[in-house]
Each structure stands twice: as C-alpha cells, then as structure tokens.
Known about the structure:
The chain is built from no helices and nine strands. The strands form two sheets. The chain has a five-stranded mixed beta sheet, with no helix packed on it. The chain has strands at 4-9, 14-20, 22-27, 30-34, 41-45, 48-54, 57-63, 65-71, 74-80.
Amino acid sequence: MDAIKLHIVSPERTLVEQAVSSVTLPGTIGPFMVLKNHAPIISSLEKGEIVYVSEGKESRLPIREGFVEVRDNQVDVCVEV
C-alpha cells in the first residue's frame, strides 16, 4: 500500500508528485531508502538516481545533486537534473 507522499522539484518545474511505497536516494555519505514511518531527516544528495516504487512499478530519475527532507511520511526533494 502506498503510504509516502513524494514531491520532487527542480528549479524549472515539478518532476514528481505522487504516493509511493518506497524511495531510495543517493545521499552524500551513501544511498538510503525511505519507507513508511521513517525518522525525520534532512540530507544532501549527490549525483546518482532517485528510485521510487508506486503501485509495484519502479521508476528512476537521474540527478546531479540536491537536498531532501523526510518528515511525517512526506519526502520533499529539490534537485538539479
């Protein structure tokens, strides 16, 4: 069941806005996965891919860098693509 609200924006536009069951991000000190009820976190992101799963379908978004804030089952990401 999808339980996380994922919102990914770039300076130009909104890239993703949907409910997901998981999201994996390329953190500066290593990749990490966010699942339902993840602890609050703010992290910088490095070049890599954001991988998210919605309704059993995996999607990938390559990024150059960015930041993420996770809180209350919401993942807000600002990236350069």
